[in-house]
Amino acid sequence: MGIFWRRLLEQLPKAGKAQSKMPTRVLAQLGLGSGDELLGLWHAQRQLKTNARLQLAVFESEAIDATWLQRHWEDAGILATERTPAAAGQEPHPWSPLAEQFIRACPARIIGCQRLSFDDGRFIVDLHFGPLLASLSTLAVQDTGLIHEWFIHPQCLDSNRHEKLLWQMARVSRDDARLWHAAGPASSPATGLADLAGLARKTGFALVDIAQVSQALAPDAPEPTPMPASDPGQDTIALQERRALRHQTRTHQGFCPLPTAGPSHSPIAIIGGGLASAHLALSLAERGQPLTLFCQDAALAQGASGNKQGAIYPLLTPENGPLSRFFQQAFLFSRRRLQQLLDAGYPIAHDFCGVLQTGHDDRSQARLDKIIQGQDWPAEIATAVTATEANAIAKVSLDKAGFFYPLGGWVSPAQYTRAALAQAARLARVEQRLNTEIQRLEYKDAAWYLHSHRHTFGPFARVILAGGAQLTRLEQTKSLQISGFRGQVSHIPGRPKLSKLATVLCANGYLTPLDDNFHCMGASYVKDAPNLDYSPAEQLENLHKMQHSYGNKPWVEEMDIRGHAARVGVRMVTRDHFPMMGCAPDVEAILAAYGQQEHTNERRHDSQHQWQTRPAPIHTGLYVLGGLGSRGLSSGPLAAECLAAQLCGEIPPLDYPSLALLNPNRMWMRKLLKGKAL
To answer: Which cofactor does it need (predicted)?
Structure first.
């Protein structure tokens, strides 16, 4: 495999000084195996210093975690262990540093896609865990396939050799994609390979035996043999079937228009100066995309992202439905993103101290018990703890059982925001325009122009509205079904007993461990508040929440709000708790089309079918990233990464159903798809 990956990457352009104009090479692997292939690919990319971003999509039916990978790499001698220490003077395995980085990224045993990004986004691994056919059939790929090469792991040759699976692989692949296998006579019967070869021809793949190619590419081979190209005699009918399958998928997803790639490095504008904007800038910069960021304030993170501390942990539900699965994926991505910025040297106050959730009354305890007992949660996501264990984790007396999120913790949202944008500026051309409030958008001559009080900026091919509380102030997005909620976070000074708190507490409100001599406690939740002034009533409310949650514990009695220290911000919240990410809906056009159907008395079924299959109206080149609510630290970075991937013509780390749930038009479309009145 090492020779194969190396020769494959030798075909790619070498790295230059600039990060711009980096092509993305998408490889896919059916079956994870022991994980050796992905380490070999990553190592080869580093050695050859190719000027290309590599995206490896791994599809595995069984979910695994970091512990599983660590054990396999220890057994393979890639990682040293206490059981098998490295011999004195012996060089460590060349893949060892990569394996250690991969383990630190904490892949978890959850269903869905987990994106792991390394080397400033030059090497991306998407781990798709779950039924293979379901994972492939919901992969969000636009009009053309994106995967260049497939490698079928030997263990998958027998169990997954069926036609539906290969057709879905074909749907998401380029027409010239090759299908590599590594099955020799000892590992798979000849009849099995013959079946695979027949299916490959039927679905339009060129099938290549990796063992034969590796022999031809060996160092002692007389002459380097070119990598085999796709068969020029591929069945044109198969390629037509592929395109028809893509068209069918796109038609069935018409109600959920996806962002599409524009001209290479066409100008992009981001409106907003908070966490969502900064992480979108970073994800775009990793792809070499220049951009301009407009912020109405004199500095970044002056809105909801300006809190001193914020909890980062997943949102779970008893049934572990789409909302719960999305937040697990998003939380893990955000944690990895934070670790990357820390490794790059950015000072970000944080503590991966875990988050401990307890009930605060009979009703909330029953709800929490239902979540705990509803699923066999992976230990790295959450684990039930007794009252005694909770006391030991918190280092203060709670005397309550609860649910512990071991990978969670707290982070400074403002520092996290500034670090993300600073890293973006290191990777690409990022122009910041502070003190610039965009009051009006104008679309003319197929481009967007941004109007402030004094200036006009543009033209921009694409504009992303990520301005938090400002999201609904523009004409194009004023009707978005999203609401602003005022939140006051109290800052209480450390005290001897209170300062022993060693984890984030969540009950009726939340409380963070000490940082810079203060704890954060909160937060209030007031819809459409008339102002953002300090509120003594909300300060007292925050205190009462903690007193209600944990009674008259000695450490609770030390809480002091007399200093009136607090911070107020506005969180934009959706009714279903999903963020908004995607194309900005043209609400007027939606309502006009609905009104026209009502007047023509179309049958309900026909109306539903039209809304299901035709593209929903959007504002061309205008996108929304917002509605992060009170869990933006967990959801924002992944939503930003998904939008950036689609804007740059890549496969996003969320499937079609998840993207539909994030789509800004979803509130209207849910009714229309059910034949209900708007």
So the answer is: FAD
- Looking at 549, 573, 597, the residue that finishes a domain is 573
Residue that wins the pLDDT comparison between 275 and 153: 275
Residue 582 — φ and ψ, nearest 5°? 145, -160
pTM score of the predicted model: 0.93
Token digits for 579? 């963020």
In 78-124, where does DSSP find H-type helix?
Answer: 96-104
Q: Is the peptide bond before 177 cis (omega within 30 degrees of 0)?
A: no
On whether both 521 and 460 belong to a single domain, the answer is no
Closest by Cα among 275, 317, 320, 270 to 291 = 270
Q: Please confirm whether the linkage preceding 459 is cis (ω < 30° from 0).
A: yes
Range of the domain at 45: 2-252
Query: Half-sphere exposure of residue 541, counting CA atoms within 13 Å on the CB side?
Result: 15
Q: What is the C-alpha to C-alpha distance for residues 581 and 601, in angstroms, rounded to an integer?
A: 33
CA 63/CA 108 separation, integer angstroms: 8
Entry field: residues in the chain:
678
Three-state helix/strand/coil letters over 402-464: EEEECCCEEECHHHHHHHHHHHHHHHCCEEEECCCCCCEEEEECCEEEEECCCCEEEEECEEE
Query: How far from 151 is each of 215, 304, 337, 527, 598, CA to CA, in Å?
Result: 17, 45, 28, 52, 51
Looking at the structure, tell me whether residues 230 and 359 fall in a common domain.
no
The shares of helix, strand and coil residues in the chain, as percent rounded to the nearest 5, are 40, 20, 40
Mean pLDDT of 571-587: 96
**CATH value at residue 632:** 3.50.50.60
pLDDT at 52: 80
Cα distance between residue 510 and residue 405, in whole Å: 14
Cα separation, 344 vs 413, in Å, equals 17
Q: Mean pLDDT of all residues in the chain? A: 89
Q: Work out the end-to-end distance of the chain between its first and last CA atoms, rounded to an integer number of angstroms.
A: 57
List, in order, residues 6 or more apart from 388 with CB less than 8 Å away: none
- CATH at residue 53: 3.40.50.150
Q: For residue 332, tell me if it sits in a domain.
A: no
